[in-house]
Amino acid sequence: MHALVIVIALGLPVLAVALLVLLVARRGGPPHDLDATVVAARGHETRISAVAATASIVVVVALWIAAVTWGEPGVLLGVAPFAAALTFGLARAVGEARWPRPTGDVRSAPLVRRGLRDQGGWRLPLLAGTVAGLVVALVVFGLTAAGDGRSVERVLDAGRETHGAGPYPGWAIGLPTLLVLALAVGATFVALRAVTRRPPIGLLSPAQDDAIRRTSAARVLAGAQLWVGLGAAAHLALAAGALLRVDALAGGLVCLLLALVVFVGSVVIAATALPSRRAAATADAQRIAAQGPAA
What we know:
Elements: H1 2-19, H2 21-24, H3 34-70, H4 73-96, H5 116-120, H6 123-144, E1 152-156, E2 161-165, H7 171-197, H8 206-245, H9 249-272, H10 279-291
Antiparallel strand pairs: 1-2
């Protein structure tokens, strides 16, 4: 219970840091020139992505410091990556609300039906699979943990000797992790929904607007994938270390292999979202420029 109070208290800075986007992501009408509008839109997207990433790193560092200062290192370090994912999602959601709105006496926008699956693409099922796999792993760890919920035990010599090792991500660590993970998934969903529902950017064609929108969706999911993947890899590695120390070789090696796969995969997936979707937008901009202004 004491650990949960600490986690909740540290959740307040998460909201405060996310709200800093209101100061960094300036809002206003878009420029009245096509090229300037594209530059401004991409600049806004890059700015809120950088702020969200910075805010999430700040939260992780704060939790690490708290783990050393206040104790409860297993719980605080266990929830740190997922608190970062929560912060990232909140910051992105707030940043999405700060996009420039169309200006002028006459406003027009194409009516395009967009869904979470359309904007999320292949990253959405990968994130869902990572979350589901982590939930299953935490439940298994909780069920196989010792009575203290922080270690794992193995009975030797026909029950005459017990060999234990920790830390192990049992219920003492797993339950707070599941709580913060659920909040992080919710924040990611809110941010992704904000991407799909934001108004089209003035002066941009549907192809250009969709390219920038897909960049936003990719980066929202990439940030969540990175932090959730790092957290899952950390829990699997923690379990692997404890299992290997009690000579549970098969379980330890499986957890270690899964930790490596999730870690490398999440980093690669996150890296693929860094470039902007430029090809479609650039080609469309050149076509519009060649046609000249519409009558």
